[in-house]
Amino acid sequence: MAKEAEKYIPVADELAKRQKEISVAEFFTKNRHLLGFDNKRKALLMTVKEAVDNSLDACEEARVLPEITVEIVEMSEFKYKVVIEDNGPGIVKKQIPNIFAKLLYGSKFHTLKQARGQQGIGISAAVLYAQLTTGRPVKITSRIGKKEPAHYYELNIDTQTNKPMIAKEEVVEWHMEHGTRVEIDLEAEYLKGNQSVDEYLKQTAVINPHVTIIYTNPKSEQVIYARGTDNLPDEAKEIKPHPYGIELGMLLDKLRWTESRTLQSFLTSEFSRVGPGTAKEICEHAAVLPNTKPSEVSRDMGERLINGIQKTKIIAPPTDCLSPIGRELLEKGLRKEIKAEFYCTTSRPPSVYRGNPFIIEVGVAYGGEIPKDEKVNILRFANRVPLLYQEGACGMTDSITETSWKTYGLNQSGDSIPVGPAVILVHMSSVWVPFTSESKEAIAHYAEIIKEIKLGLQECGRMLGSYVRKKYKVSEQIERANMFERYIPEIADSLSVLSGEKKEKILQGLQKMLVKPEIKNEIIQDDEDDKMYRMDFKNKKEENEEAREETG
Amino acid sequence: MKKQEKKPVKQLEALGSKLVADIEKGKNPTIEFSLRSLSNVVFDKDTKTLGLGEKLQQRTFFNVGHAKKFLQTLEVAKVSKNLLDVGKHASLRDVFYMAKRTIANSNINIVDDQSESDKSLEDLELITDLSREQLNINANKMGSVAGNVTIEDSGDTINWAKLGSGGWSIPSNVEEIEFKSVKAKYIIYMEKQAVWERLHEDKFWEKQNCIIVTSQGQTTRGIRRLLQRLSQEHNLPLYVLADFDPWGFYIYSVLKFGSINLAHMSGTMTLQNARFLGITGDDANNYDLKKHFIKFKDVDMTRLKQISEYDWFKKNKEWQRQFKMMKDFGAKLEIQALSSKGITFISDKYLPEKIRKGEFLE
């Protein structure tokens, strides 16, 4: 027995030897698709996108009109170099390694503020991907001011520890006064089309009319998307969470870390739209004393608080944390990049889902050079970032297909994407955009969001409809005038046979009448008589069905 | 040019001259004629026929809604004038093909469908106050007749009793026919060609000394005119044999009172002494035919309701009783259902019995 006991090692211990922490970097190495790096083509787009998003966020925060250079160079088959340079505020020296070579490091995750980036994964994920596919480090140059030196770094990520490894570090000469330059070598594939870097940059220019982008593609073709306005979007303010959006775990976390001494002051200081009165009311509804110490709030009490919040009437969150584009600028953006003949845009009033304020903006471009017999092109944006993938899974797309476009002058069969010469743009600004996945490609289906999008679509739809009808009417009028011109010789011939008069004479008489103003009115007007006639014709048809006798 | 063709030619010329005059005056060329629509069809209680009311409609050329119709009307007028000028006749189908062509420099056809040229011709009748036959346009021959009657047509003497199994086929224009001798005592008009063939094979007209007439379903103008002349000139009662369904009833209605569609021609076509012999709702009971009922469709019920509300049926208790029976059955019955009693049941028993007993509706 004793011998056996000596030999016996519990299985759990055995297993414990193999159990260890999984580093975030390791996790993403295996699950790169979660971040959108599932194939070579998409990897190229994601890399450009993450770098450009960061540049734009940084420029706007520093109130600088963004000017961004994007260059993609083909090194060998499936190997590309991506260089992105901005005129932003630059990055302080000691933060450079963390920002580019540490996953989940960033300033935006903990704040509720409208920004392009949210989680602090983006650019470091691109760096990690590049490192995995080419083994090359990311090369960063950044300078924060005229009097400061430009710092140059070559960085790798330690996938075990999720820490930056500095391969090279030096001060260099740089022509920019301030800004950041990122150079990444990665395995990629360059293709044009709907989900390409070209399309992403073009859409970025539409939705950010204050941005200039100079883009050189691997074929050495340069495109300049010039800015259409010198007005930077309003700076988005940071807000505290609204009570309606809070979940139990988050509440308990906040309670643990707060510096407030009472529950009441905790509620007023940690949440927006909660004053002492509202705080008391919440406590009352939750049957918890307002002077309870936050650290003494139990899980059970937390649950009661959540219920209490739902029972309390709290005004909607402030909306100055949002920075919508606005009707005029949105139209400018569309006009700038899409050659159409009619544009209309709308900016909805702010609304709220789960305590998060948001604004929906919709734009439609119609006619011109847009292909006529194809499905309409849908441009989806979240916080000024184009969404190119997962169109079918997106709440914006569903809002479009569930809207009836026939009345607005487009073709549509059932609940499908409408067909016609149009581009439909939907933009959602929010402090927290509910994406369906970490790769940020599709908007989740919250009823409040869908409703707002549909309202925006309908607003634009009505404007589109009245334009299309007017246009159709004009062409119909021209058609009608032509129709009479064609009928005249036939009429003249018949009348000549009947009356014995010369055909030429009758022909001239009729043609003279065609240009008379009162006759012109008769032709062009879709008058009452016409409608009556149609009605009469319809009635007659019914009668014919009634009367089964006598046709032959 | 034959004598009778002079009036039509004048009428057409008058129409042409009027429109040319409009154009010379710089006036929108306009044709005015009675409105042909249910709202302008009136039931004359004295003559017991349908006629057109006083509402007029205008057809002008420079009007988006009218232009095509105007064009079509003049086109058939031209066709008719050309026919009259050379003294030839054409069928409705011929007229359609004479009018059907694409207008130069466009993809518009003057007519796309025969129904359009037919309609235009009906309008032309109203405009010129001439019948289609007077305009030298004939319909297809559709009906058959047999019985103890001798006629003269285009110089030929024809005995309706001696025309084999097919009988005499009725032309579309019967105006020139002369009745030499009429020995028959009454006429039976039936909706179904097959029933006519049954009665003809059974020599029903010989046994009963009557005239049997049919057309395929619809009663053509030529047949209606022939029936009217026989009935009026020789004072023969007319019995109608049709299916027990709303459409069967309407065949009787058209023969007796005139049709909505051709209300303008009622005067020369209605038959005051027409009687509806069967099939009636009572027949379904008396002859045990209920097992052959065909269930009503929605459209049947709608039609039944329309018919029961016509002015000329509204106050007729006997007819309202039939409508109610049909509504209650929710079903219709074909004449041929009688064959279930034996192939010659209809000629041996059903018809003689009904006529002897005087079982009919008026």
Question: How would you sum up this structure, described in words?
Answer:
The complex is a heterodimer of chains A (552) and B (362). The N and C termini of chain A lie far apart (113 Å). In chain A, helix 7 packs antiparallel against helix 12, helix 13 runs parallel beside helix 14 (447-499) and helix 14 runs antiparallel to helix 15. Chain A is an alpha+beta fold and 552 residues long. Chain A is built from 17 helices and 14 strands. Chain A is globular, with a radius of gyration of 32 Å. Chain A has helices spanning 2-7, 11-18, 24-30, 40-61, 96-101, 122-134, 197-207, 248-257, 263-270, 276-286, 299-311, 327-337, 395-401, 447-499, 503-514, 517-524, 528-546; strands at residues 67-76, 79-86, 138-143, 150-158, 163-172, 179-187, 212-216, 222-225, 342-347, 351-353, 356-366, 377-382, 385-387, 422-430. The relative contact order of chain A is 0.08. Chain A folds into four domains: 24-225, Histidine kinase-like ATPase, C-terminal domain (Heat Shock Protein 90, 2-Layer Sandwich); 243-311, Helicase, Ruva Protein, domain 3 (Orthogonal Bundle), CATH 1.10.8.50; 327-468, Ribosomal Protein S5, domain 2 (2-Layer Sandwich), CATH 3.30.230.10; 470-542, no CATH class. By secondary structure, chain B is an alpha/beta fold. Chain B folds into two domains: 3-138, Winged helix-like DNA-binding domain superfamily/Winged helix DNA-binding domain (Arc Repressor Mutant, subunit A, Orthogonal Bundle), CATH 1.10.10.10; 143-357, Dna Topoisomerase Vi A Subunit, Chain: A, domain 2 (3-Layer(aba) Sandwich). Chain B is 41% helix and 19% strand. Chain B is built from 13 helices and 17 strands. In chain B, a hairpin with a 4-residue loop joins strand 2 and strand 3 (49-52). In chain B, helix 2 packs across helix 4, helix 3 crosses helix 4 (114-128) and helix 10 (298-308) runs antiparallel to helix 12. Classes of the chains: A alpha+beta (552), B alpha/beta (362). Chains A and B meet through helix 14, helix 15, helix 16 and helix 17 of A and helix 1, helix 2 and helix 8 of B.
